[in-house]
């Protein structure tokens, strides 16, 4: 009698990073390579243009750039020979250039998480401090109340 089939056991010597997984690792490697090529290619462009366009992909010998408007796309196309020459110098097998008009993603604006303490909240804290017998806690409440928004401090 033969024992039932058991699949080979995997080594479980600890957790692996997601970046070590085959498909994810190759995707991360390609993203790093494209990012590096983007940086190098845009450095060859004049200042206002380099800030407006982004290198998106290299597929089948075609460099693909993104521009926020048709005007920026037209300006980038004027530098096509220079870009292709630079790409070849960097080792990228580029034979043509495509520019797609697509708005660039907006820069992330991090909101100010510190809101001013309102005058009403400060009055409540001062009233709570007056009712406390612990001097340390009382001073902490009064310190917090002192951070209240003063008239004319609000941003408009």
Keywords:
single chain; 156 residues; alpha+beta; GMP Synthetase, Chain A, domain 3; 2 domains; three-stranded mixed β-sheet; 6 helices; 44% helix; 12% strand
What is the level 1 CATH name of the largest domain?
Alpha Beta
Order of helices and strands: HHEEHHEHH
Extended strand count: 3
Indicate the low-confidence ranges by residue numbers. none
Question: How big a fraction of the residues is strand?
Answer: 5-15%
Give the count of helical stretches: 6
Descriptive notes:
- The chain is of the alpha+beta class.
- The chain folds into two domains: 21-101, GMP Synthetase, Chain A, domain 3, CATH 3.30.300; 115-150, no CATH class.
- Helix content is 44%, strand content 12%.
- It has a three-stranded mixed β-sheet with strand order 1-2-3.
- The mean pLDDT is 83.
Quick summary of this structure?
The protein is α+β, with helices and mostly antiparallel strands and 156 residues long. The protein has helices spanning 22-43, 47-52, 70-77, 80-89, 119-130, 135-145, and strands at 54-59, 62-67, 96-101. Strands 1-2-3 form a three-stranded mixed β-sheet.
Layout of helices and strands:
Layout: H1 22-43, H2 47-52, E1 54-59, E2 62-67, H3 70-77, H4 80-89, E3 96-101, H5 119-130, H6 135-145
Parallel strand pairs: 2-3
Antiparallel strand pairs: 1-2
Helix pairs in contact: 5-6
